[in-house]
Amino acid sequence: MKKLIALLAVLSIFSCNQAKKNNYSKKNIKITSAEKVTVPPGKKLLETKCFVCHNSSTPNDERVAPPMIAIKAHYINENTSEEEFTNNFLNFVLNPTKENAVMRGAVKRFGIMPYQKFEEQDLKKIANYLYNYKIEEPSWFKEHWESKQSKSYINTGKKVSDIQSNKTSEEIGLEYAMKTKETLGKNLMGAIQKKGTLHALQFCNEKAYKLTDSMATKFNASIKRVSDKPRNLNNTANEEELTIIEGYKKIMNNNEPIRPITKEIGNKTKFYYPIITNSMCLQCHGTPNTQIKSETLKELTLLYPTDKAQGYDVNQVRGIWSIAFKN
After folding, report:
1. What are the DSSP E strand ranges found in 185-245?
2. Which of 159, 165, 191, 322 is most buried, judged by most C-beta within 10 A?
3. E strands of the chain, at which residues?
4. Alpha-carbon gap, residue 227 to 321, rounded angstroms
5. How far from each other are the two terminal CA atoms of the chain, in whole angstroms?
6. Cβ–Cβ under 8 Å, residues 173 and 271
7. For 326, which DSSP code?
């Protein structure tokens, strides 16, 4: 069952061959407090697309994937050029396979990532950020690395403050959606990892709403996940949300870039963003008796007698985040 656990983006993304030596010292640039640091787009993409599994702040015993600093430490050294790093990063993420994996310990513990749809330009921006900027690392990592490796690791480069003022409504809504997704995702994948898919169904039935509500309280916002094919009737999309879901389906079918939708109504903002399936989702949302096993179907029938959330394939719109918050 461990092989079902998703590793977002980068468990093992690089070949063993090294490119021509790159002057890595160029990245050891000190930024004075007087300088204005522009937040690179790769930072936001890393946080929204990878941190469900790879967040450095996740406690080690709750972790479902290695933190991003572990990826950087294993695959960037003083001889690694940015071009080599970027090419190897894209090669794996766009076609993740066990054969390409070189972080064998991580694969053994967490499993290989499922295929997911990523825009190539987004992946290049993430790679640029990982290569050129100092990224967050948990307090335990240095000691862990030095106890396992006979070499130091690289986490140098420009440092970007986590504090961003004057966020747009899109950025605020996306932060709320992704933080909630991260909380739900790590708990769901932890349930699968520990006790399997059937246990994960119990988790969704009993705890998903409570966790979502706790995040809504934290952000002082209304946070919902709604669908045109709900598993739970409480997640049924209203007329406006159905229209937005259909719009996102067309965007996906046309292979167009996905962007949040925001609407200003009085002193509040409504925010919408799609929920996209990956291969791990199909354990409970795929084709009955194929991706969804018979014992899982039986449990679904007991827990959700009106279940409509089946028959999906990868990279399809299963619903949307529907969030409201004060301006």
Report:
1. 222-226
2. 322
3. 133-134, 158-159, 222-226, 261-265, 268-276, 317-326
4. 9
5. 44
6. yes
7. E
CB 117 within 8 A of CB 37: no
Alpha carbon of 45 to those of 129, 149, 175: distances in Å? 9, 30, 11
Q: What is the pLDDT of residues 118-174, one digit of tens each?
A: 888 999 999 999 999 988 888 888 888 888 887 888 887 777 755 455 788 998 999
DSSP secondary structure letter of residue 78: T
Q: Which residues contact 94 (CB under 8 A, 6 or more apart)?
A: 118, 120, 123
Which of 225, 209, 205, 204 shows the shortest CA–CA distance to 275? 225
Angle at 105 between CA 204 and CA 21, to 5 degrees: 120
Report residue 272: phi and psi, to 5°.
-135, 140
pTM, two decimals, is 0.65
